[in-house]
Amino acid sequence: MSAAGLASAHRPSSGLRPVQLRRDLADIADLIEFCFAPTLDAGGRSAINEMRLLSRSGPVVWALGRLSTAVPGVMTGFVWIEHGRLIGNVSVTPAGYGSGWIIANVAVHPDYRRRGIARQLMHAALDLVAQRGTFAVLQVDADNDGARTLYAQLGFTEQRTFTRWRRATHLRLPEGDAPPLPVRPVRRGESRDLLALAERVRPNERGGMGWLRPNDLSGLRPGRWPALGRLLSGRSVTTWILPGADGAFDAALRFETRLGCSTALFDMLVRPERAGELETPLLASLIRRAGGWAQPLVTEHPDDDVAASEALRGFHFRPERTLVHMIWQP
Predict the structure, then answer these.
(1) Measuring CA to CA, which residue among 228, 230, 237 is closest to residue 255?
(2) C-alpha to C-alpha distances, 129 to 57, 88, 122, 125, 266, nearest whole angstrom
(3) How are beta strands 297-302 and 264-270 bridged, if at all?
(4) Rounded Cα distance, 98 and 77, in Å
(5) Are 81 and 13 in contact (CB under 8 A)?
(6) What is the spatial distance between Cα 63 and Cα 174, in angstroms, rounded to a whole number?
(7) pLDDT tens across 220-274, in order?
(8) Which residues in the chain land under pLDDT 50?
(9) If 0-12 CB within 10 Å is exposed, 13-18 middle and 19+ buried, where does residue 325 land?
């Protein structure tokens, strides 16, 4: 009998159990790929390939499996087995802030849906979160009504819906007759003013800046030695701000590139009093400034910001995926 056959033979014939990396990793990768194929982006496909590579690295996976039991929260989760076949999965990993946890890869094979398996997997995951943390967060496609209903029944509340937009590199730079906005780089001493704008536009109780990006001073403060930071981390972040007449910031643009990343990321924040007025000139300024970069421009922006959505479409950004961010607190 093959190694895969031996592994299957030792699995319970049916039911829920914790993930066992040495046995389950390749099957989990197959299940995720099968269930989420229409929505997988390059990052998702890369993660699946890494899971398969790890599944073939016996000693490495064994070490990770030992680590997952020794260190709470490292590569944990649950699977559902039917007659020796892995047909359900949920992953639980640390969010990296505030004793929170991420729930991801909630998948049940289509042949076994509508039997309550996803609900039982989620109950197990939430029990784990309740023991070890203070909250759980997840993302779900905005048009996945069934999943959103299930999560709401389990006590999740919706924070905000975000759309991922992309602008291809082959598009021409904007032709603008309007004078450029007087934006300038933010100074280290202005971090609290930038935080105040972020908290008004994207408060943490509504998902913050985006997925796993809560507003905090450390994340918004410019580096003291940016050149050294780029050299050590391969990451470059520039923030431009537009000062308002009252001393507060009217708008901010945050632009980020990473070594080896195929896209350039940005965030656009506009003070509510000037919504609908600044989005188009801000985007024009950003695209001109970023014109020398080879990567496409990508942003994760609140879907309820109508003015920004219209401006993004006007500059030929294409919506890729719309996700609802949800939170659960025991």
Answers:
(1) 237
(2) 29, 19, 10, 6, 32
(3) parallel
(4) 20
(5) yes
(6) 52
(7) 888 777 666 666 777 889 999 999 999 999 999 999 988 878 899 999 999 999 9
(8) 1-11, 69-73
(9) buried
